[in-house]
Amino acid sequence: MSTSPAPRGTYRAEDGTPVEFADALKVWTRIAYERLQQVATHYNGLITYKELAQHVQRESGIHTSSTPANMVGKILELCAVQAASAGDPPLTSLCLKTDGTVGTAYWRTPIAEGLTMPELVGEPDVEADAAEHRLMCYRAYATDLPESGGVARIPEQVIVRRERADRAAERTRAAKREDEPQPVCPSCFTQLPASGVCWQCD
After folding, report:
1. Which of 29, 18, 82, 79 minimizes the C-alpha distance to 56?
2. Using CA atoms, how far apart are residues 96 and 79, in angstroms rounded to an integer?
3. DSSP class of residue 100?
């Protein structure tokens, strides 16, 4: 028994009728924005790229053969502009990749559109900023927010990965220090201590 291959491109699931990607994007963006607002009603609520892609396709009846990363990336760009324009908190911070990050492209769209995200104080760290933005979303929408107001959280998997990278970097620095030639006394050629003063010649 043969089955027909799934249509390529963007199409209506019920009959395979082609749909312009730009038209589908408008529908998906509206659905995605509403879904992100729903996610924000739960403190520490999150949604993945894959989950959001499945949701907007299921709710709209419009599917695409495009990858979730490409599809959702474009949806989030439009959602980011909509939130910034409407004065809403950055809802796109609630949507994460499989590695637990929002990615370095998180800031691009509002900047490209001449809009700005809420300003934060501190060193630039897109994942830390996104965590603060998620807290803004929970404080605006969550029905189960702690009395304390909640705290900004970077996903555990991101923290673990950073700690692992820091340890690896420290091992590299330590190995480099060991390989560096140690200073010696110019008179007796004894290796100098940390003080730089030769204990034999002083």
Report:
1. 29
2. 14
3. S
